[in-house]
Amino acid sequence: MDKREKSNHRLQEQGITRRSFLKFCGVVAGALGLEPVFGPKIFEAFAAGPKPSVLWLHFAECTGCTEAVLRTSNPGFADLIFDTISLDYHETLMAAAGSTVDGILTSTAESHRGQFFCVVEGAIPTAEGGVYGMIGGRTMLDIAEEICPKAKAIIALGNCASYGGLPAAWPNPTGAMGVEGALGSGLSVPVVNLPGCPPNPVNFVGTLATYLLSGKLPALDGDGRPTFAYGKEVHGQCPYREDKSRCLFEGGCKGKKTRNNCPSVKFNDATSFPMQAGHPCIGCSEPDFWDTMTPFYQKS
Ligand code: FSX
Ligand code: F3S
């Protein structure tokens, strides 16, 4: 490929990226209950910048929440992240490690005080002073107590960060809790819970888009979840609910007890969702679902 061909190729790639991101913004607009015309408006809000600064913390979890975002391919993760936010700290994705990185976290939280979104993935062990969850010699609890109160808002990404998730399942020997539970009522920074195990990246971008478009966080339900994503129960949106050959209620599907937008928004570039793949809903966006929704394959 000569120089001119290379440059044309690059421009073409950028065009595809732009188109796929624009399309993704249309999906986000749909998830927010907005008319399709809002897709380009969301795109412009992200493109106009400045992009919101994000410090992304990892605690007790399987990292499936980051994996869910990594698996978006249209747009790809890099475009999704770099077109929407200024990702200033993310342990899984940063090349650097060790004390250099610890310093960056503390100094960025201080220099961006009150201006950054703190994304938290994973539960926070609280028993015995938090010793069951350590990073670089510090407890996760200690790190959360230092960083979270300096944020403009906290986005608890996934069921673990929202309500404790799997690490908090009975008998929960580590005292694992979601962010709000672990940091207690003294926390004055607003928390948006985006549960799901994993959560849908569309709902994450939708939360940021709401903020960029209106200057406000989305309206929340009684469990701290945005009503645009968790306002309706799964069953009511499921295309198989009237189809006896496909409905999984008898196989234990918890769609009637679970609020989320999976059948409407779907995962992996709107390709599929659990029941489309033949698996019942296990209630992964509800508080304490490992205790309240099990056994997963029994009708209840
Ligand atoms: Fe929990 Fe997320 Fe489930 Fe896993 O970070 S919500 S176990 S998908 O990874 O926290
Ligand atoms: Fe979770 Fe049920 Fe959706 S298991 S991914 S809330 S269909």
Describe the structure.
- This protein is of the alpha/beta class and 300 residues long.
- It folds into two domains: 3-229, Rossmann fold, CATH 3.40.50.700; 232-300, Cytochrome-c3 hydrogenase, C-terminal domain (Cytochrome-c3 Hydrogenase, Chain A, domain 2), CATH 4.10.480.
- 39% of the residues lie in helices and 11% in strands.
- It is built from 13 helices and nine strands.
- The chain has a five-stranded parallel β-sheet, sandwiched between helices.
- Strand 5 and strand 6 (138-139) form a beta hairpin.
- Helix 1 (3-31) crosses helix 2 and helix 1 (3-31) crosses helix 9 (201-214).
- The protein starts with a helix and ends in an 8-residue tail after the last helix.
- The relative contact order is 0.12.
- Bound molecules: ligand FSX and FE3-S4 cluster.
- FE3-S4 cluster (F3S) is lined by residues 196, 234, 258, 260, 262, 273-274, 281-282, 284-285.
Name its key features:
300 residues, alpha/beta, Rossmann fold, Cytochrome-c3 Hydrogenase, Chain A, domain 2, 2 domains, 5-stranded parallel sheet, two-stranded antiparallel ribbon, 13 helices, globular, binds ligand FSX, binds FE3-S4 cluster
Topology overview:
Blueprint: H1 3-31, H2 38-48, E1 53-58, H3 64-70, H4 77-84, E2 86-90, H5 99-111, E3 117-121, E4 124-125, E5 134-135, E6 138-139, H6 140-147, E7 153-157, H7 159-163, E8 176-177, H8 179-183, E9 191-194, H9 201-214, H10 227-230, H11 234-237, H12 262-265, H13 289-292
Parallel strand pairs: 1-2, 1-3, 3-7, 7-9
Antiparallel strand pairs: 4-8, 5-6
